[in-house]
């Protein structure tokens, strides 16, 4: 099969669209070519399902392209009580470290700690109310409890070492540029993903090579529905055609509600938040990190990170309510905020705008959260069923989802599809 470079106008793209136009029918139509859509497409394809995938732009060009490059269980989700998600995340992290070591690598992570008992009362209140409240730094005791739980969830993987605590003297010996006011550091391991887009394209290629009935096309969008099925538009030629499916899987990320509206059903599942990052060319900061991620709570209560990336340092992230109809951009205010983050941990290292080599933003596909503080919005996922007007075709909308758990999520979503098309999980190949 000829490969596409993802750019409109290539012969491979035209062939992929023609394959949909010429046979406008599949058992399952997946709308959305981010990592979760591609993962679901692969899971269905490798189980012999007649499945088609469409993506309105480049593959993994939306929320999937703007991640923190982390593959992690989500230690901070413990405070939200999302134990199922943490357990799944750690399991999937360990799995990716084993099966994709060329992309996913262990990441030593250090938390600078400024107090012993801080946050002991505030953390339960945040857990119970899911409000940000007054920022209260997490002290050593609270972090120790969290990391012990995190080790417990990691116990079966055998992939990463258990956490370690060090006092001020040992901490500053290992990381001499750290703020000298620290009292302790806690160090544990998660993982980072290098070239996440390449990993996603490998997953896509798995589906196309291994699935005899799998078809995929980018620069094709779902623009409506008629009595037969979903109306698709080739964004290169402008041509529209109807595509029939027994089940439609809407994996449009933060744009899920807009896709459902285009298909004739109004939903209000999503409430994404914007996350921005900057990448700095600062050799002193690279050296100060000693190859580690610095993971900590800023004075406003947000959990943030600083870590080396390809000889530079990435700093992130923000968590701001955002309008998905508008482009996500990293603002000057966010850049100022990132500089504060660096100064919070490495006060002797100067950073400025001339060192910025890249900045990027994306909108997380989070569920609608009304007055809940963005940092406490669940990072778990769920599947919402609905039907297309007229024919009554089943639509399964994914709400939530993140890079780390894409494989498990895809399996769960595919199992729901199998139920809808009358295939038992036990009978799967």
Automatic annotation (TrEMBL):
Highest taxon, organism lineage: Bacteria
GO biological process: glycerol-3-phosphate catabolic process
A single MF term (Gene Ontology): glycerol-3-phosphate dehydrogenase (quinone) activity
Database matches in InterPro entries: FAD-dep_OxRdtase, FAD/NAD-bd_sf, G3P_DH_FAD-dep
Known EC number: 1.1.5.3
Keywords of the record: FAD, Flavoprotein, Oxidoreductase
Annotated protein name in UniProt: Aerobic glycerol-3-phosphate dehydrogenase
Lineage, opening ranks: Bacteria, Bacillati, Actinomycetota, Actinomycetes, Micrococcales
Gene: glpD
